[in-house]
Amino acid sequence: MKCKLGVVCCEKIVPIKMKKNFAISLMFPLYKDRGTVRAMINNSEKILKKLKKKYEIVIVDDGCPEKSGLLAKKIAKKKLNIRVILHKKNLGYGAAIRTGLKKCKNDLIFAIDGDAEYSVNDLPRLIKASNKSDLVITYRYKKKYKTTRIIISWIYNTILRFLFNTNFKDISTGSRLVKKKLLKRIKLTSSSPFLGAELAIKSMKSGFKVNEIGINTYPRSFGTGSSVSMKNIVLTIRDMIILYFKI
Question: Domain span at residue 218?
Fold first, then answer.
């Protein structure tokens, strides 16, 4: 039975147990990230091979004007465990993540941004943390960004704590590990950067165990991110309000 929130109603959900021979999906979206495509694929393959688990890499090009997805296809041409999905037009960060999560087939899904601000080498730590949780989100030890972005992030997280009664330190950081079975219990709808917060809030409100660990970040050395553009700020506020009135 589903409740108004868009999750399977329950009194309490015990953390989902993982089988020992679990498989991993690593997925990342691309938008104006052509400069990091090759490094993201190479670094992802290295860490996944070290884990000695069955794996796949899923890449979503969200209508990137630089045609990052075509470059990814070229790099991964002879690699059967890498799939590239192309959005015909830009649908938004949240929409790209939702597409990737839906296309991933394995037990654990590591969703990370494609601009290399976050390290795929954090994956083993997230897997360890997932032993007692269903969703592992991350917070940045130190925010190495412009003052404006740091202020926006602080205001955003403060509002979310107040509206949804959470105590997450940094709810929308672009590096997270989620169990596939959890995604079958909740419905994600955001197309904006609010998607990360929606995932954490709905998981928490429906009784799933959400863990949070600290990571280092590496601000992009090329171009500019779009998550704090005026358009995305407006869309994020819209999605936040929609979820607030659904709960």
Answer: 24-246
Rounded Cα distance, 136 and 181, in Å: 14
Position 9 pLDDT exceeds 70:
no
11 is a domain residue: no
Q: Quote the pTM value.
A: 0.90
Beta strand 210-215 pairing with 24-30: unpaired
Q: What is the mean pLDDT of residues 15-29?
A: 89
CATH number at residue 184: 3.90.550.10
- Within a domain: residue 164? yes
Integer Cα distance of 226 and 231 in angstroms: 9
Q: Is 170 helix (H, G, I), strand (E, B) or coil?
A: coil
Q: How many domains does the chain have?
A: 1
Stretch 220-238: mean pLDDT: 74
How far is it, in rounded angstroms, from Cα 243 to Cα 157?
15
| 90: its two tokens | 């830009």
